[in-house]
Predict the structure.
Amino acid sequence: MLKLTSTDMLKNKLIDGVIKEPLGGAHQDPVAMAATLKKQLLKDLKVLKDRNVDELVTERINKFCAMGVVIED
């Protein structure tokens, strides 16, 4: 009912993406999880550093302002 799964949160634009965990969860293989997280962070930073700061700030403000708004189909 709360729609707290990663799929629901992504669909509702509350999160930007989902990072897959190792089989059994991140706690089962923290080294692999750290490597996966590092890879994703470096990829995201590469994209973000080439973006205009003012546009990024505006997008972030708009994203947070839209949170909690309910649109019924």
The two ends are 16 Å apart (CA to CA).
